[in-house]
Amino acid sequence: MISKHEAATVQGFLEDTSNLKHGWTPGVFFPESEEEVAHLLRSAAAEGRRFTVAGNGTGTTGGRIPFGDHVIAMHRLNRIEEVLPVGDGTAVIRAQAGAELQEVQSRAAAAGWFYPPDPTEKSCFIGSTVANNSSGSRSYRYGATRRHIRSIRVALPQGDIVDFARGGHMADAEGRFSLDLPIAGHLSFQRPDYGMPATSKHNAGYFSAPGMDLVDLFIGSEGTLGVILEAELQLRPAPAKVFACLSWFMDEDELFSFIDRARTGGSGVAPRAIELFDRRSLDFLRQSYPAIPQGTAGAVYIEEESTGEAEDDCLEAWMSLMDACGSPSDLSWAAIDAEGMTRLREFRHQLPVLVNEWLSRQAETKVSTDMAVPDAQARELYELYRDACQSEGFTFIIFGHIGNAHLHLNILPRDREEFDRAKKLYRKLVSRVLAMGGTLSAEHGIGKLKSEYLVQMYGERGIGEMVRVKKAIDPYLVLNIGNLIPASFYESET
Predict the structure, then answer these.
(1) All domains in the chain, ordered by first residue
(2) What residues does 189 pair with on adjacent strands?
(3) Which DSSP helix (H) or strand (E) runs through 255?
């Protein structure tokens, strides 16, 4: 098995997009087969090793950064199999954990199929998207990764390699799972005993629901219960046409009226994505896009799938809705072909680039949120963020997945004093969002950066439920310690 200990190689595994610092590792293993992963896990307890599983470094929460543990890098397990139609109007494609999402999507598209999950960083690994239940803008229509997984292949912490297919292992009436494994022996445990928030996106803590599938416990568990080796992904027929549009609004009431009517579909529209840019986001974007109309209170980006025959009706329905909600349709930016879609998506992705350029000239990093609330409270979340930041005098932007009541607030401190105040405000915002029935993380997960806040969401009892499940599957605490569950909770039974 390939392993590296040189500082130059190791350094790359002490970074992701979280800006979490001071990680360290004795070395990085690059398994080239599933059996090599299993061998590392089987020998871990006897050799006194713990492991952090590393994807491609696109995460935002420090999940792949080790603090003294060895690293298992999944890069060499990157095989992608052929697309296989399954006879029910769908198809499947199997991909190993180290396969990049963009390559899977390209393979699917070349065969006339479509894999809906669309996290911003297309170079992320498939195993990471499963472990983190990744989503993106299209989750408004299609949901997160969980909805598109037919089966997974997992290396469990004691070294068993197990295939879990949907429907194969369901929680019984008491919420209990039972497994008989060659190495670990008989495992029996109950699902976590807590409820899920009533949000349309949620990615914080172990999934739990009556009668749940064991597959769903591993999806979103952030590598704490096993190493995802391979996944069977469900594909849909590729849409014949996709239409996108960026609409400008001079008034916030009109903007949110448009969003509400687009979400209900009562105006003859059926979006697959609804994204918001607030006024301050547009101010940043004018650096690269001076044609953005002046005086805008915000903008909404939408996508809808259509057919060649229905495309004109689709366009007309959106134009009518814009006019009805006060957005001048003649000023909107629309895309009806691949080139236009690429330009509008580049517009969306330019915002974080410009923010990072601004931050590079400051002394501090941003303070950002990934929270969501029940759909009906989307505007309340927006106003909470806006009013709180204005009262503090911060430079900030609000943008993101308004269709799912999931908005990203980026506070952009100019010095240490502002950074400290922004962190205090973040804690207050967490409390407010949780009181609204929201979730701490809608898509980016918890990792190491947000584990302390997960205690605030679930309480010590809820974290104790996660520890109970973790110890049932990983009794020697081999995998991803510090991710999701604060490490201090492992010190005693709770």
Answers:
(1) 1-237+448-494 (3.30.465.10), 241-435 (3.40.462.10)
(2) 177
(3) helix 252-264
